[in-house]
Specification:
By secondary structure, this protein is α+β, with helices and mostly antiparallel strands. It has 3 helices and 4 strands, in the order H-E-H-E-E-E-H. A hairpin with a 6-residue loop joins strand 3 and strand 4.
């Protein structure tokens, strides 16, 4: 078990909850079933994240990705569909690379 990683995730969750501005944490993980990627997915799952089934293909990188989410607010109305979640992830990337 990665105690430092678990502590980091706990601190991020606490910060998000304390600001009152976040309903969910959303990440992307490589979809390839290599031992390393499976270990990463397992880490996030044991931290409370839910893996979606949708496999996303970016046009500029060869790796495929899946979305994982962790609800911070019970009964949130946030989407759970991986394809829908990648719209948010793609918008984040777009804004990040444009310097917004």
């Amino acid at each position: 078990m990665d105690i430092q990683g678990k502590n980091m995730v706990a601190r991020i969750k606490d910060w998000c909850k304390n600001t009152g501005s976040f309903e969910r944490l959303l990440i992307e993980v490589e979809a390839d079933q290599s031992p390393e990627n499976l270990a990463r997915k397992h880490f996030w799952q044991t931290s409370g994240f839910v893996l979606t089934e949708y496999i996303h293909h970016y046009i500029w990188v060869p790796e495929k990705y899946q979305a994982m989410y962790l609800d911070l607010v019970p009964d949130t109305n946030q989407p759970k569909d991986g394809k829908e979640l990648f719209k948010h992830i793609s918008n984040f990337h777009k804004d990040s690379y444009q310097g917004v």
